């Protein structure tokens, strides 16, 4: 009966089902009480569907196919997950978006979202440096583990744990709340936090009382990635609100800006918040999050950025982690004190890579002078994970004052990275990309430090090592790393 659906006593051709037309439904309520309405404008030709999905925070062009009553709509052929999937059920669409089920009904005139006003950002100019982030910023961020399940209590517990675990004293000082803290704007346009964060100023004070710094998140768009209010049209006002709360760090995430701007506008749009932060009355470190688009490494520092994402979102897998670091390679010349390339936050301790892979993650981030924002539950870390995040010899490589980003000198199954350091030594990482343990060799001739090694340390075994005939050889587990500091 493929292609046909039994329907009472009759059998009708599946293609008789139709998702054609304009539909609207409320997917869920945000934590600030606002509904996420989804408006679908779909065109069906035979079993092929195309059209537009508009939500409170995103607009997607989509394509898909109807099989029987079921359809899945994708916004790009590379997408693994559909933007929306569902079934035609009589005069309704039964839909699932981001794992939330909801029902859409035929839309009436006026149900569509009104277009946003286009605000042209000011002309390009160089934003003076804020003088911050002389070494890559270190801290913790809520997103990788908690996503939208973050609240005041959890952030306070993280601040406590930053101290008791020794993270703060090792240099991890920022405690950063990512997306989903936002409430709504009041009549004066001031943005408030939602019920999960009853008093942001008090929370910032608590974080500061622990000798830590406090970070927050917004977007240049009207909405953030998770569809909460962004800073569009309120840049100066929000920068002043953040300063009044005691914010020390802003992650500014492009996502919802796509509804208004194109990639050609990236620099001017980021510059607008760069200026706003400088005039906020408080030093606020500026983190650009635009997934590496628009050659950000060439202009990130000019808009006042202290770090900028060079990649899409990391996930807790070997493939994602290593893919992100490979994308760092062309950006190396642009890193330096005050402005860093960001291959995204750490997944160390989140449970889906093994300990060798997490050591490699840590080593590669340190070698590439990446910001180190832990993304795990630091209230509850195994000794192994603590030893990885708190390895002072590896942290010293990341935080080296020269601020050079390592580049690979050898590719293939044993990829070798070299990072020059301020005291004339170099950090070397040999990563075993293969599926079996093997031996790796570091040749002094590859390191650019002359012909004689005066000292060398293995930064994971914490032992001195000896070069013989200009080389050092050691075994490296699958997906593991040999990391040395050589002088
Ligand atoms: C984007 C960013 C992530 C995170 C989420 C929050 O995907 O790249 O790091 O901030 O948005 O919605």
Ligands in the structure?
Answer: alpha-D-galactopyranose
Secondary structural class = alpha+beta
Q: What do we call the CATH topology of the largest domain?
A: TIM Barrel
Number of strands: 28
Strand order, biggest sheet? 3-4-5-6-7-8-9-10
Low-pLDDT segments, ≥5 res: 1-15
Give the % helix. 10-25%
Shape call: globular
Domain tally? 3
Q: How large is the count of helical segments? A: 11
CATH class of the largest domain: Alpha Beta
How much β-strand is present in the residues? 25-35%
Task: Give structural notes.
With 487 residues, the chain is of the alpha+beta class. The protein has 3 domains: 4-106, Lipocalin, CATH 2.40.128.120; 138-398, TIM Barrel (Alpha-Beta Barrel), CATH 3.20.20.70; 407-486, Golgi alpha-mannosidase II (Immunoglobulin-like). Helix content is 20%, strand content 30%. It has helices at 143-146, 152-164, 167-170, 200-209, 235-245, 266-278, 296-299, 318-326, 355-367, 383-389, 392-398, and strands at 4-7, 10-13, 21-29, 35-45, 48-54, 59-67, 70-74, 84-89, 92-97, 100-106, 138-141, 174-176, 182-185, 191-193, 213-218, 249-253, 285-289, 307-309, 340-342, 372-374, 407-410, 414-420, 426-432, 438-443, 456-458, 463-464, 471-476, 481-486. The strands form 6 sheets. The protein has an 8-stranded antiparallel beta barrel with strand order 3-4-5-6-7-8-9-10. An 8-stranded parallel sheet has the order 19-18-17-16-15-12-11-20. Strands 21-22-23-28-25-26 form a 6-stranded antiparallel sheet, covered by helices on one side. 47% of the residues are buried. It binds alpha-D-galactopyranose. Alpha-D-galactopyranose (GLA) is lined by residues 143, 178-179, 224-226, 253, 255, 289, 313.
């Amino acid at each position: 009966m493929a292609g046909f659906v039994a329907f009472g006593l009759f059998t009708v051709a599946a293609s008789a089902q139709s998702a054609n037309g304009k539909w609207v439904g409320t997917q869920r309520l945000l934590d600030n009480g606002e509904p996420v309405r989804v408006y679908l404008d779909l065109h069906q030709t035979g079993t092929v569907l195309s059209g537009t999905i508009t939500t409170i925070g995103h607009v997607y062009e989509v394509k898909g196919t109807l099989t029987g009553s079921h359809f899945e709509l994708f916004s790009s052929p590379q997408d693994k997950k559909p933007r929306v999937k569902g079934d035609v059920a009589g005069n309704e669409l039964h839909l699932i978006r981001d794992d939330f089920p909801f029902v859409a009904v035929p839309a009436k005139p006026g149900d569509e979202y009104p277009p946003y006003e286009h605000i042209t950002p000011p002309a390009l100019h160089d934003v003076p440096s804020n003088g911050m982030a002389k070494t890559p910023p270190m801290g913790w961020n809520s997103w990788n583990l908690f996503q939208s399940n973050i609240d005041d209590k959890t952030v306070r517990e993280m601040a406590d744990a930053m101290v008791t675990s020794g993270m703060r004293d090792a240099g991890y000082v920022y405690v950063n709340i990512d997306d989903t803290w936002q409430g709504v704007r009041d009549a004066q346009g001031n943005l408030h936090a939602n019920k999960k964060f009853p008093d942001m100023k008090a929370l910032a004070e608590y974080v500061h009382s622990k000798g830590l710094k406090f970070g927050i998140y917004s977007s240049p768009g009207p909405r953030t990635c998770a569809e909460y209010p962004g800073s569009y049209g309120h840049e100066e006002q929000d920068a002043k609100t953040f300063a009044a709360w005691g914010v020390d760090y802003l992650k500014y995430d492009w996502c919802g800006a796509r509804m208004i701007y194109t990639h050609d506008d990236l620099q001017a749009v980021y510059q607008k918040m760069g200026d706003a932060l400088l005039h906020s009355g408080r030093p606020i470190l500026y983190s650009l999050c635009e997934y590496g688009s628009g050659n950000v490494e060439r202009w990130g520092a000019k808009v006042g950025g202290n770090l900028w994402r060079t990649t899409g979102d990391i996930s807790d897998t070997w493939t994602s982690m290593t893919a992100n670091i490979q994308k760092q390679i062309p950006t190396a010349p642009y890193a330096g004190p005050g402005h860093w390339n960001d291959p995204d936050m750490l997944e160390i301790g989140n449970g889906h890579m093994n300990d060798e892979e997490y050591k490699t993650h840590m080593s590669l981030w340190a070698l590439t002078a990446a910001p180190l924002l832990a993304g795990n539950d630091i209230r509850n870390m195994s000794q192994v994970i603590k030893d990885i995040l708190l390895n002072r010899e590896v942290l010293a490589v990341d935080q080296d004052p020269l601020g050079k980003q390592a580049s690979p000198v050898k590719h293939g199954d044993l990829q070798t990275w070299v990072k020059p350091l301020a005291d004339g030594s170099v950090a070397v990482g040999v990563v075993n990309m293969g599926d079996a343990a093997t031996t790796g060799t570091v040749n002094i001739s590859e390191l650019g430090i002359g012909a004689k090694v005066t000292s060398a340390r293995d930064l994971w075994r914490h032992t001195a090592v000896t070069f013989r005939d200009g080389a050092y050889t050691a075994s490296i587990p699958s997906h593991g790393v040999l990391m040395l500091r050589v002088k």
